[in-house]
Amino acid sequence: MNPATHIPWIASYLWLIPLLPFAAAGVSALLPQRCRKTSAGLAIGVIVVSTLLSFCALAESILHGLEPHAGRTWSAMQTHEVWHSLIEFTWFNYGTTSLKLGFVLDPLTAAMATMVSLVSALIFIYSLGYMSRDKNFTRFFTFLSLFAGAMLGLVVTNNLLLFFICWELVGLASYLLIGFWYHRPSAAAAAKKAFIVTKIGDTGFFAGLLWLYHATGTLQFYTPDHTGALEQVTALAGLPGIMGLSLAGTIALLIFCGAVGKSGQWPLHVWLPDAMEGPTPVSALIHAATMVAAGVFLVARTYPLFQASPQVLTLVAWIGAFTAIMAATIAVAQNDIKRILAYSTVSQLGYMVMGLGVGGMAAAMFHLLMHGFFKALLFLGAGSVIHGCHNEQDIFKMGGVKKHMPITFWTYFVGTLALAGIFPLAGFWSKDEVLTAAFRWGGGLHKGPFVLGCLGVFLTAFYMWRQVCLVFLGEYRGGKARAGHKHVGQEEAETHHETAPGVPHESPAVMTVPLIILAVFSAFMGFSGLPEHANFIHHFLNPEHAPHVVNWFVIGTASALAFAGLGAGHLLYGVKPLAPDEPDPLKAKLGKLRDFLRDKWYCDELYEATVVRFVRIAAVVVDLGDRLLDGVTVGLGLLARGVSFFNFKFDEQAINCGFDGGCGSVRVIGRCFAALQDGRVQSYLRLVAVTAAILAFWFFLK
Amino acid sequence: MTTLAHFQLLASMLFAVGLFGAVTRRNAIVVLLSIEIMFNAANLSLVAFWRYGPHPEQLSGVVFAIFGITIAAAEAAVGLALVIVIYRYYKSIEVDKMRSLKG
Q1: N or C terminus: which one in chain A shows less Cβ crowding within 10 Å?
Q2: With bands split at pLDDT 50, 70 and 90, how would you rate the model's confidence at A572?
């Protein structure tokens, strides 16, 4: 077989992976509300099929990776490009050009699709238990399917336009799901915030998309004849763009705006913690598999554009590093179990973006994949805790949950260690990869992201251990104190389990089994990215770069800092368990700084004072202008009404009166003559006689 | 001495009587009789004009009158037939009751 035309069978069926969840969403949207089992079964069945297909795709691309020549095109062999297999089709023609869409199977797609569909499938199953009391169960699974379908769509597509469409669908689905309990004002506001803040980034993305199309004439990433948008980067890098950047750099910067919005990077990170208003499985889905991963994936997908512009990469690295450290510091001072995890996600996304910025694309993607597993685990575990503690979310009102929920505790423990980066769990390997890439980035100021990242490692371990201590260790601080107490962040009463109040209870198997599976993945998936020559993930995702050498300095520093973080957390919270209503010991240690951190660096307030106020003022100005314009419009309308009234009167009085009068008199005369013709023969004869007599008189008298 | 004027006066009176009858009577047969009277008044007038006219030897007036009588006979037959049909249709021969002769 000619290797250039060889297409693995799975590539031809790649479109099924996103289409199946879409179809499930469409079907269950039409189902009546009472078809709970049908809807959930459909959603889960379909996502499982998608997962199996993704595994097939993964297996196919691993096989191609193992035999370096099979299936590679000639030019790919020449330049050691990443292997990819393309399916192209024409959407529609306009004029002489046609809009082509397509799907691509390459290691990036395969790995991402596998992670997304697997994590989604586990979250779907978990939702069965978590949402079992919700009366909008059917709607929930419809939206979940839409969410997963959109995400898988943007993973498999080979076209920036289709990518953008799926990207916006992801945004829509997240809006619908964050605002799932829309009757709660805070949920509705959070949904709107998520939608609007990400839209700010999307505007940049769209501008970049248009510019890319203008510059290259295509939006395909890769084409069989190597004229795809990403294959023309060398030409783009030579053209001038804005602000002294090359055209490639400009477009990369615009596309990065979209990633900043979607992946919750500073300064557009503010929506992500508020997205906690959605049901917990949605938070898990947003934070692990779908929404936020999309931004990082976008940068990874269009990475050639970024590589062409070192300035943009530097910006990306610094934004990532700053976000990582900022979100980690905020997470330290939060009390809501889901909010801590949300800021942790923002922080970890910062690591990924930093990894992309310092040139470690494979490292960032590795961290994204690993993070997907352990963050989904942590969120689902948090959901299980919330579920067990009767919808309590404040970690200061928990404690001692380990006794009551052993499975949740042990899985959560694995997730915590994985996130903290403790050997040998997944987070250790992936974070180490990112930090190594940052360390090798350069000297002097370029060591900055590495230093910030290391600080972040310490903080991550600290806040995670703080959470574990407060939630699982010590004595239960809820119970009586909670009687008659309504917490703002409380989950919906519809998901509430009716058991004896005050005692936490373990969640049902449908919720714990996904936790166990995710814990296993979080524990062992890291071995796919062992450093040294066996670094499979690196070879797999980015064969262009030489594999990393083990950097014992980085590993040592990161591990030491992680252990230091755990230790500090244990000293502060673990040694002496907190009594109920005892204040956070951190308050004494940090003082005013803690308030600053608890209030999230006053980002929301800053935006409220600047952007929102500006928008309000602009709204007032525009409103005034509108009113002015409105006055003119109303005046013109009145004038037109006056003229038409005059016309109406003229018509009525002058024109109609003549015709109407004429018609009326004709009618009257007709009625008179009609009276003469009464049908009696004798009256006709009489008329004739009288007429004859008159004629005779007239004749004789003349 | 009987002059043309006397005959014409008689004919006029006959015509007037016939007209009066035709206009006022309600019985269709009487109306027919009145119409016959008007016919005969006209015939009388024709014959009188012939007798006192410039060519009494040419018989033209008599022929005219005889044609008129013939036509009147035919007309009477048709008229009576109509009266019978009308009677069958309306169950009456009252002329007032027939009012369908209008647009």
Answers
A1: C
A2: confident
Summarised one tens digit per residue, pLDDT across range A132-169 is 777 788 888 888 888 888 888 888 888 888 888 888 88
Count how many Cα atoms sit within 13 Å of the Cα of residue A51 in the half-sphere of its side chain: 17
> Largest alpha-carbon pair distance within chain A?
149
B23: domain CATH number is 1.10.287.3510
Q: Is the residue at B25 inside a domain?
A: yes
Residue A332 has pLDDT above 90, yes or no: no
Nearest-CB residue to A682 (from B95, B100, B102) = B95
Nearest to A237 by CA among A226, A228, A227, A249: A249
How many Cα atoms within 13 Å fall on the side-chain side of residue A305? 30
CA distances for A178 relative to A114, A171, A284, A327, A389, angstroms:
24, 10, 11, 21, 22
Q: Which two tokens stand for residue B33?
A: 């009789």
Q: A678 contacts in B (CB within 8 Å)?
A: 99, 102
Nearest-angstrom CA–CA distance, A684 and A323: 111
How many domains does the structure of chain B reveal?
A: 1
**With an 8 Å Cβ cutoff, is B99 touching chain A?**
yes
Sign of CA dihedral A122, A124, A130, A132: negative
Length of chain B: 103
Asked if residue B78 is part of any domain, the answer here is yes
Cβ-based contacts under 8 A for chains A and B:
31
Task: Check residue B33 and give its pLDDT.
Answer: 92
Which residue is closest to B21 within chain A, CA to CA? A682
Helix (H, G, I), strand (E, B) or coil at A13: coil
Mean pLDDT of A62-69: 60
CA distance A684 to chain B (A): 9
Task: Identify the band that residue A330 occupies on the pLDDT scale cut at 50, 70 and 90.
Answer: confident
Which residue of chain A is at minimal alpha-carbon distance from B97?
A: A680
Distance (Å) from the alpha carbon of B103 to chain A's nearest alpha carbon: 8
pLDDT > 80? residue A118: yes
Please say whether the beta carbons of A409 and A388 come within 8 A: no
Residues A456 and A340: beta-carbon distance below 8 Å: no
* Of the ranges A440-449, A603-612, A659-668, A693-702, the best mean pLDDT one: A693-702
Q: How far is B83 from chain A, CA to nearest CA, in Å?
A: 13
**Residue A394, beta-bridge partner list:** A336
Q: How many CB atoms lie within 10 A of CB A494?
A: 14
Is residue B101 assigned to a domain?
A: no
Smallest Cα distance from A669 to chain B, Å: 16
In a domain, B33, yes or no: yes
What is the domain range of residue B32? 4-94
Distance CA A377, CA A290 (A): 14
A679 close to B (CB below 8 A): yes
Interface predicted TM-score of the whole assembly (ipTM), two decimals: 0.83
Q: Is the pLDDT of residue A234 over 50?
A: yes
What's residue A546's pLDDT? 47
- What are the φ/ψ torsions at residue A5 (nearest 5 degrees)? -105, 0
* Contact residues on chain B for A689, CB-CB shorter than 8 A: 19, 23
- Asked if B95 lies within 8 A of A680 by C-beta distance, the reply is yes
